[in-house]
Amino acid sequence: TQKEPYICKHCGRKFKWKSNLTVHLRIHSGDKKFKCNLCDFSCVQSGGLKSHMRRHTGEKPYECTQCHMTFSTSCGLVSHFRTHTGQKPFSCGVCGKAFMRSSALGMHKKVHTEDRPHKCSICEKGFKTKRCLTKHFRTHTGERPYQCAMCDMAFATLSGRIQHYRSHAGVKPYLCETCGRRFTESRDLARHIRSHTGEKPYQCMKCGKSFAHKCTLVTHDRIHTGVRPYSCKVCNKTFVQISTLKSHEKTHLKKPVVWSCDQCMRTFSKNIQLVSHKRSHLPKYTCETCGETFSKLSSFKSHGRKHQ
């Protein structure tokens, strides 16, 4: 007997139970009978509505046994747990690259179709989704809208802030087997491992130069595009890197160096101006032949030879 006798006539998907097929067909018919009474959300299953309601209540009943992060859905926990196990069950049929989430695989597949419809208005770089474009655009504006409630750090993405919270909790589940160093995030461990292997997976499409870190490639790419997204609020000077901007901003905070004459207390902004001024306090040497005066004896003697 056939194990999955119920087949969707629209997409060919197979189901073991008729009830599952009935629910699935609502996706094609648009029949979303379960509606949220707090917003416009609707879905085809009661379970979907129950999960959605947790967004309003803030309830997160599913807890990770490894790092104690909590999630509003069981599938969210299952997906997260793969960051601990390293499991990547979703693989690309074209290149074989594996992913932890089906959504990540879906975005990756667009690389092969070259479908990058969302273009950056500043550097013309294309992105697979509008969400990716929004994240990228913050590299130009320097916007960091997600503020940590426990310290002054801010982040360009919500996921960045969530991952940062682990640093306050002291959770470091990712271990480097080479040197024993531990990390809060799997991506931090991946970056660190490159310091052992020397791998440089991020290559500039314009000049071919390779980098160990994606952020370094992003910064390097600004050499080609001429984009300088970080500007000083005091003098409007622009910079390629935010670290360079922060160093520059300190020059506005420093008190100007004052050079003072120890004889008349007159002040100067530059040492060379003070040196020149001090000559006015030196004895004058006057040429008896032509009347020209000199502050230096050596200059006076050199001048005198012209009259000999």
Automatic annotation (TrEMBL):
Its main location: nucleus. Residues 6-33, 34-61, 62-89, 90-117, 118-145, 146-173, 174-201, 202-229, 230-257, 259-286, 285-308 form the C2H2-type domain. The keyword GTP-binding does not apply. This is C2H2-type domain-containing protein. It comes from the Eukaryota. PROSITE patterns: ZINC_FINGER_C2H2_1 (PS00028), ZINC_FINGER_C2H2_2 (PS50157). Gene3D superfamilies: Classic Zinc Finger. It comes from Nematostella vectensis. Keywords: DNA-binding, Metal-binding, Nucleus, Repeat, Transcription, Transcription regulation, Zinc, Zinc-finger. GO terms for molecular function: DNA-binding transcription activator activity, RNA polymerase II-specific; RNA polymerase II cis-regulatory region sequence-specific DNA binding; zinc ion binding. The keyword Metal-binding applies. GO terms for biological process: regulation of transcription by RNA polymerase II. Transmembrane segments: none annotated.
